[in-house]
């Protein structure tokens, strides 16, 4: 039986499997919405949008994975491997490096200040369209009708249940997604004849090789492009993307946020690897089928649904298509709910609190957030009509998301690391990064429309002998402006670097920030040793001015010690009449304590101590704030 592209192929077993899995994945969110909405758990804004900042680590980690693994990942990655080989798999190295950078550079600032919002791009139509497209390919149902059902289900539990419902539902949907992709990978491997056949067929056509280590940014897939391009792109995504930051802050401590990030890293690597293997298995099926249909490879996002239909028929697995579609549908639902909830948070925190400077009663703000969520759900459905009318919009939308992510990440990086950059530098850098990345993205899309495209790898001798197709017309790459020929891996890094470089230069020339107004807690620990002295004297000034309760804004657990105290500060500390508390934490982490206007931090190595400098510990005198004598902020 040949591997062909056709619409339909859904049977009774598929509908049953799809219905059961989708119902189970959504039941938790709907149940929590119905039960939790009658309790205080989702009444006020903090509980609705941030889960009370007391969520459990594993569900949040699964929700992070759900935010990353969308229908685009499940459908797009196999097609990329199918056509261009396995170099893309090296992006997992970039994802790993990005998680390390986020944990050391960005998380300490967000977790110290406990801020709720970074930013979010309205990317809703994309996450609705891709699962609807897969459903249409497998069942023949109208894309708009499928999108409407998807928005209705997702909007129901997101509007009523808030972040708690979203996170717990994401956890189940992520599990369903992994089950679906894993079953397709396993059944597809068996359909091709086993792991050995998949590997040998892929190796014959060069699709198993990871040998292109060219530094040329014009080649679609290279080892360096996948590693460094993936590293910078996913750093932009993982560091300041609103859906990610919202989940970091929903956890009660930085330690738990880092743990969730670690689990996310493992899950992302597993998801990418499974999708890569599905692409290799699909290639093996196409070659074994005589290189049909039409003598040319299947391409595009419809590849994997077609492969699933083929595998289900060959292996006589009537429910496989339903399980797979439930996984894609769940991935789309989780991504949609994440973006809906994040956009509601941005609307309230950035627009209501930040721009309009209005603070309403918590219940009113909770109702407002729900209204924003419902409105955005309707907008996403209406925008689906536009997406259906515009061909190639997926590539354009993906490029635009990279523009937003890179320029915004650049602004945050400037603010967290470059103390000499002020509003002028940040604005100039953001404009330069967005304009450059935007021009490259749109220019490359226009060039591709004219015929500039990377050709797939060779189809092997067997396929060449059976081929009856003529390769698509292409144009001479040398006639295209060089920047418009860049691989998509380098668009986000280009925008990020442009934002940072221009921002640093303009800030150095035109911004003159007052050191007396700098706060060390606003900067990443990586640059603390380089900050002006005044920044350390003002450490905590911004956090204390935030309009939140002290219990919601704990003192930082990140290390603020620059070096051992000079002798004069030791003397000042010993002579200070205030008594500070030294709390032993078993040699782990740090302790921040102040009393009577004295701020210190200690790296504990001994037992609890009070008065003077603890023996065997490093203590830094950070500031002499005028605080109530009874105040003590635990580490």
Supply the key terms.
single chain; 635 residues; mainly alpha; Sodium/glucose cotransporter; three-stranded antiparallel β-sheet; two-stranded antiparallel ribbon; 21 helices; 5 strands; 62% helix; globular; disordered C terminus; transmembrane helix
Describe the fold and architecture:
With 635 residues, the protein is mainly alpha-helical. The chain folds into three domains: 13-389, Sodium/glucose cotransporter (Up-down Bundle), CATH 1.20.1730; 391-513, no CATH class; 543-623, no CATH class. 62% of the residues lie in helices and 3% in strands. The strands form two sheets. The protein has a three-stranded antiparallel sheet, with no helix packed on it. A two-stranded antiparallel ribbon has the order 1-4. Strand 2 and strand 3 form a beta hairpin. It is globular. It starts with 11 loop residues before the first helix and ends in a 12-residue tail after the last strand. Residues 390-394, 465-471 and 548-635 have low confidence and may be disordered.
